[in-house]
Write a sequence for this structure.
């Protein structure tokens, strides 16, 4: 079992599926559209290029960090909540 505070490395291949499972990708797209923003608008607010936002939204981003997700949330006027649920 991993101990608290231990850094866990996730392979690049699993990043897209992890984003999908967490539904972050879908929520980012929905919120961006609700705000009437293009990917370019969001990218400008985040200080990144439009292809970075496109890859994040498509689940193809090879190196997604919590800081990137937080930056997107802040740019969209949202907050990030992380929760854990026990497996049944």
């Amino acid at each position: 079992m991993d101990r608290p505070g231990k850094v866990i490395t996730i392979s690049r291949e699993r990043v897209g599926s992890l984003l999908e499972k967490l539904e972050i990708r879908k929520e980012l797209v929905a919120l961006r559209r609700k705000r009437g923003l293009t990917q370019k608008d969001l990218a400008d607010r985040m200080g990144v290029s439009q292809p970075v936002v496109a890859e994040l939204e498509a689940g193809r981003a090879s190196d997604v960090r919590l800081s990137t997700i937080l930056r997107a949330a802040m740019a969209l006027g949202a907050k990030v909540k992380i929760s854990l649920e026990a497996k049944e």
